[in-house]
Amino acid sequence: MSFLQPFILMAMPLIALPVLIHLINQNRHKTIQWAATMFLMQAKRMSRGMARLRYLLILLMRMLAIAGLLFALSRPMSSGWLGLTAGSQPETTIIVLDRSASMSQQGSSTGISKRETALQKLSSLITNTAQNSQLVLFDSVSQEPLVINSASDLLDLPETEGTATTADIPGLLEKVVEYMSSNQTGRTDIWVCSDLRQTDWNPSGGRWEAIREQVANREGVRFYLLTYPKVADENVAVSISGVHRRENANAAELVFDIKLNRTTKSETPVQIPLNIVINGARSTLNVEMTGSELIRNGHTIAIDQKSKQGWGKVELPKDSNLADNTFYFVYAEPALRKTVIISDDKETAELIRLATSIPAERGLRSESEIIPSTNIAAIPWDEAAMIVWQIPIPSGATAKQLEAFVATGRTIFFLPPEAPNTNQIFNTAWKEWIQTAANESNRISRWRTDAGLLSNTLSGSPLPVGEIVANRYCELETDGATSLAQFPKNVPLLTRIISGQGAAYFCATLPKTSDSNFASNGIVLYIMMQRALARGAASLGAARQFECRLDSELKATNWKPLDEPSNEILVSSRTIQPGIYQAEETLVALNRPVSEDRIATVETTELERLLSGLDYTIIDDAAGSSMQLASEVWRIFLIIMICALLLEAVLCIPEKQAETKMTATLESS
């Protein structure tokens, strides 16, 4: 419990005032022996024990009434969360706000989102309990500290609005630790507002140990996790993939795959109307959904044969989360999917060339080129959709070119060289080659089936990744990478690092037969390389798809909105909100990351492991909940004061009656 007017508690010694008055009153009159009343005193002495107890209770009630008044005037704060408002005020209050698309889920009866609920409650709490504390906001989009003058501003800041992005909670906490260290924040409260999605928290990542260690070394740091893990029933999310234009001699059509995800796993069929917009023309597609997922591959819509490029979107009826009800797409004549292979290993280079040069779909154009390490200057940086790098990691200007290549949305696939060096790129370095023993388990034991290059097919069928065996592999030293496949004992085989709009992949073994069976198990190698190539090619050509994120590389100020919702978005928010635009001769579609549709959350036991050794409190809340984090309870103390005065009056009644009776007796005598 804390107090908004704690200085009033300095008057607590006034509680002893009734006792002091009692002692003064006892010595006020001189005692004179009078025979006429001695027999009355003797009779009264017979009941002195009960009278003394009653008089003590009267004193106690008077003291309680004064205490109740003082507590009420000091405006005490309390809550249902033990220690939430206890102790001294923090010097700094840091808010870590998850602004991802999933935090836009609304309460069923209130229409208030998880994000808005958290902000309203924190604004009220901080205004009442930590007015003198410096308030700093870290949001999941900018990840930069923002000093806020007043807690009430939290509700109106652009930095607290909902977005169509994802969140990196470990990365945010790293920034928080860095801020506390550089600013010597002293006593600090850290409020983390999140819905605990696994894709945002990455509990298996390697950054949590360093975060725990750095925070544990600082005194006076407390964590409060204001969590919203509950997923709304019957919420449906839509996403589109594989969009391409197909033409024959007589007509043209648009081909794409539709995927619906539902939070409820009910087997009862549900009719869902999909509103499809192509270049402003609307149509409705009714689909019947059973279970939690529906995939419709190769859906076709006839388009004008003269329409070489255009845009569209698929919309769902309104439900609890409006942020996942619309998905934009653009199309154009397919760009050349060019792969550049940098390698001195002829066998490896030829296997990669075969896997990347054969297009996965009719109508696509693919091309692969092999360049030796002695001719790096000949790399066609502007034409390539993907670079496969199988020579030692470079440094200097070449390394910067590779980083810039990925930042523009394209893909680099790193394979281990025969002689690794000590250079790092994307916080990753090759170490030593390891030859697996004959009796050692060298088969892939774990891989991501929900996302990434090895995920299940659109029909839900898994790839035969478990059949991949490595005879030798190169150790990886990485920080911040997402593991897509592992050998036993958590040895990474395939990792991914997101940088800008693109991705860098590191595969710890080679596809040639002396190192692995990737070549004989050609399905996995082909699909893996085609998916990596497709990701890189999405940022080329006249139609480009991007995931929403804060990205200065996208020159959004000159974009022309192509529909009304996109036109209403502020220029500064264009890259973090879904929309459809035209940038000179290029069409651009921005959407939430499809990882936001995955509803798996971090379990309590896992959360306890991540925060082990830290001072933290977990507060489970719900969107639109009216529960207060802390509220004033002065009314309770006023009630206590009134009850104490009433009880004091009741206890005084027998004493008044006795005095009246004694007076009457004396008068009669």
SSE topology:
Elements: E1 2-3, H1 17-26, H2 35-45, H3 48-73, E2 76-78, E3 92-97, H4 114-129, E4 134-139, E5 145-148, H5 169-183, E6 188-194, H6 198-201, H7 208-216, E7 221-227, E8 236-247, E9 252-262, E10 270-278, E11 281-289, E12 293-303, E13 310-315, E14 326-331, E15 337-343, H8 346-357, E16 366-371, E17 386-390, H9 396-407, E18 411-414, E19 428-435, E20 446-447, E21 472-478, E22 482-487, E23 491-499, E24 502-507, H10 522-537, E25 543-547, E26 560-561, H11 564-567, E27 579-583, E28 586-591, H12 604-610, E29 616-620, E30 631-632, H13 634-668
Parallel strand pairs: 3-4, 3-6, 6-7, 7-29, 15-16, 15-17, 17-18, 18-24, 25-28
Antiparallel strand pairs: 1-2, 2-30, 4-5, 8-9, 9-12, 10-11, 10-13, 13-14, 19-21, 20-22, 22-23, 23-24, 26-27, 27-28
Helix pairs in contact: 1-3, 3-13, 5-7, 8-10
Q: What do these coordinates show?
A:
This protein has 13 helices and 30 strands. The chain has four domains: 2-78 and 634-668, no CATH class; 92-231 and 600-629, von Willebrand factor, type A domain (Rossmann fold, 3-Layer(aba) Sandwich); 236-333 and 542-597, no CATH class; 337-537, Rossmann fold (3-Layer(aba) Sandwich). The radius of gyration is 35 Å and the shape is elongated. Helix content is 26%, strand content 28%. The longest helix has 35 residues, at 634-668. The strands form seven sheets. The protein has an eight-stranded mixed β-sheet with strand order 16-15-17-18-24-23-22-20, with helices on both faces. Strands 5-4-3-6-7-29 form a six-stranded mixed β-sheet, with helices on both faces. A four-stranded antiparallel β-sheet has the order 11-10-13-14, with no helix packed on it. β3, α4 (114-129) and β4 form a beta-alpha-beta unit. The protein has 669 residues and is of the alpha/beta class.
